[in-house]
Amino acid sequence: MLLGANAEILLCNAMGCKLLHRSEQELLGTTAFGAAWQVIQADGTKFANPKLLLSPQENLVLGIAHPQSDELMWLLVNTQPQDSAKQVICTFSNITARQSSEVSLRHTQSRLEQQNQVLLALAKRRTLAQGNLNTALGEITEAAASTLGVERVSVWLYNSDRSKIYCLNLYEQTPKRHSCGAELAAVDFPAYFQALETERTIAASDAYTDPRTCEFSTAYLPAVGVTSMLDAPIWLEGEMIGVVCHEYTGGVRHWTIEEQNFAGCIADLVILAMEADRRQKAQQALRQSEAKFHKLTAHMPGMIYQFIRHPDGSVDFPYASSYCREMFELEPEQMQQNAQLVLGQIHPDDRQSLDESIASSAQTLQPWRWEGRFITPSGKLKWLSGASRPEKLANGGILWDGLLMDITERKRTEAALAKRERYLAILVEVQRRLLADDTDGNCYAHILEQLGQTSGASRVYLFENHTDETGRLLASQHVEWCAKGIKPEIDNPALQNFPLEKVFPCWTEAIGRGEIIAGIVSEFPEPKRRILASRKVLSILVLPLIVNNEFWGFIGFDNCQEARLWDSLEVDLLAAAAAAIALHQERALAEKALFQAKDELEIQVEKRTKALRDTNQQLLVEIAERTAAERALQISLENLKKAQAQLVQSEKMSSLGQMVAGIAHEINNPIGFIVGNLGYANEYISDLLEMLYLYQEHYPQPVSAIVERSQQIDFDFLVTDLPKLLESMQSGAKRISDIVVSLRNFSRLDEAEMKRVNLHEGIDNTLLILQHRLKYNSHHPEIQIIKEYGELPNIECYPGKLNQVFFNILNNAIDAIEESLVLCHLSFANDKGLMTKDKGVIRICTELSPAGNVRIRIADNGLGMSEQVKARVFDPFFTTKSVGSGTGLGLTISYQIVVKNHRGVLNCTSELGQGTEFCIEIPISQTN
């Protein structure tokens, strides 16, 4: 946008209007980001002073309300005052998606923190560890309902024959009530129970339409008012034993991944509660039977163990449940015989934290809790979570009874979420730097550094394509980032003007199509493997840069420390960053082309200005050479034209022909006299000049008085200029004679009776009379006349009266176009005559109708007429013009001339905003 001294909008391009959802007419003259726009700043406060935009602003974030939906749109605004004029260039771009992403990211982080706190608080509850299942389930369902904001949370378990599930605990948040006992038969809801067996969670945004839950729509859902469901199956020892149901009653709800993971964790806590309950029962059964205890521990989804640290520092496992086979790939007897078989599997980076946690628990006799990584003998990396209580033995040793749980999947999920958030943050930062960059590419080094650090690459580089004089495709490295310890190659001459098609022909073709290249170098065929291996590259990722649908270059990611592949999430997010860089290049090329076009336009304008200046100077010289008599004649002619225009506007159309004819007659007499005598004057002057030449020849030495007078009157110039003067007077007199002929043809007073004439001549003469209104002036640009004349015979008519009809209709068309230009705020440059929109156009068509009549159609592209105005357009004294601008009789008289005098038809076709067309149809002959 271009802003004035008071922050008013002087100009807004099409993209700006599109971003603001307002037309250019709505924006021009209004205050930019004023009170009517409902503008807020990034911190939520109202933007109350638009004149701040008159000073330089960089990356100002403003939110404005959508003019139709009131939806908030976020813009990144930059302003630059112009020193040469009291104007400010204001640029802005839509960053609503970025703002939404940041807000969504904060909300996601907040929800994750809240959910983690709830899960941690539940895990610390004594009821969970003590095995009081009913109390633990009550606390879990209440916490889940509060955290997810749902009305109902319930825990269901299968019966013994798995024919149905029964509700173990149902919590309703509004009445704060717990209940149980409801049952659901598996045979009634087969799709739902099948989904429980195969899916981690069932997230049904619309429970009535989701194929997994729609079976409940006939009875269960309407009865309890549930609209959305989030169910997590309860798995125990590889078997699905029940489900935790989260039921929402407030309409359709889209469950986020965080909410689904939280629901899964709630199911895990239910499992822990059930395990604690079972553990409690197992301890009771242990006192009754050791066999029952072993049977129970064999089915626990974790390893129950006893761990002793002796006074001498040695350790062993007196007991380990059978789950150790799956967890450590060891038999219980192996663990009991050699504890180092387990401790040796601890990840080296986690061994110190384990030793410190054991020492702290032994010293304080506080419960031991720890999470860490283990590497099994088969090479699997597992995350384990352990919890136990210490007991000091009589001999001074410490005994821990505890439980180890495999939390590998949970850790992988957390790592994936953290990785995604990290990439999204980098992607947002890339977008911010690109938007803030001035299109010269200075930000690319920082962007590659951030992408490299986030992706863990050893080297990140950007190549730009170009061609040599033979058209061969070459690539040159422009920007590079290297990790610590990696040798930079930005100065390697081999990477400048690199023959890409010759070295990597297949890759060049694939990348040119927008495909991504990724893989481990050792798996590539020759010569790719040899070339990349020489640079110590173990794995590579190449992302194309497609600018304006052309292969502009590429971004490469080398890994020189390990041969690993980037996963699909990394590739998608890095490809999004590459796409952002490509868009940045498109913007840079567009701005470069714009500046180049601007320079060329300025050169053309300068040339045109010089030509106009030279032409103007030439005209001034010619005008200066004209005689005083010609200037007087010109002044008289201009006064005559002004008198004629004034009479046309004030007199009735019925007297226009007489007035024009009178003027033509009055001019014709003196002009005839002048034209008739100019020949004699020229002949006499030639004789006088010849006589003077004879005197000069026979009397070469005149007396001093003659010499002095000759010098005073500049005799030589007078003799030279006098013939030119006579020639100019003859040309002006001929022009006036031609105009008189056109005026007489228009008035046709000598043709008042009906006779056969050429209609095209009458139209052309009428246009000549109105020529002064069609020309460019300070109120409107030139009105274009389009003639589409058909082959017409001479028709029998009253020529003078038909000329009046043409005059009235054409005059009204010009008025309509002028009014349209004023109302539409059309602007144009006085020195160039260029308009911002199409010019006014009057189209005149003549043709023979199928009935054999002559048809004349006169159409304009003015504002048009409403149905009410069109119905009265031929009524006497009806006019839409201002007082003093029209009598309301022009079209009435025209209608009478066409219909009554010529037995013809005069119709009007018009629509608001589409212009107006008058159609005249008269017979060729009036006597038949």
Q: Radius of gyration, Cα only, in angstroms?
A: 48 Å
Portion of residues within helices: 40-55%
Distance between the termini: 67 Å
Name the beta content range: 15-25%
Which geometry do the CA atoms define? elongated
Number of helices: 28
Major beta sheet summary? 7 strands, antiparallel
Q: Count all strands and give the number.
A: 30
Mean pLDDT: 82
The secondary structure category is alpha+beta
Stretches where pLDDT falls below 50 for ≥5 residues?
A: 645-654, 825-837
Question: How would you portray this structure in words?
Answer:
With 928 residues, this protein is of the alpha+beta class. Helices cover 46% and strands 22% of the residues. It has 28 helices and 30 strands. The strands form six sheets. Strands 7, 8, 9, 10, 11, 12 and 13 form a seven-stranded antiparallel beta sheet that branches. The longest helix has 58 residues, at 568-625. The chain is elongated and about 160 Å long. The two termini are 67 Å apart. The model is unreliable at 645-654 and 825-837 (pLDDT under 50).
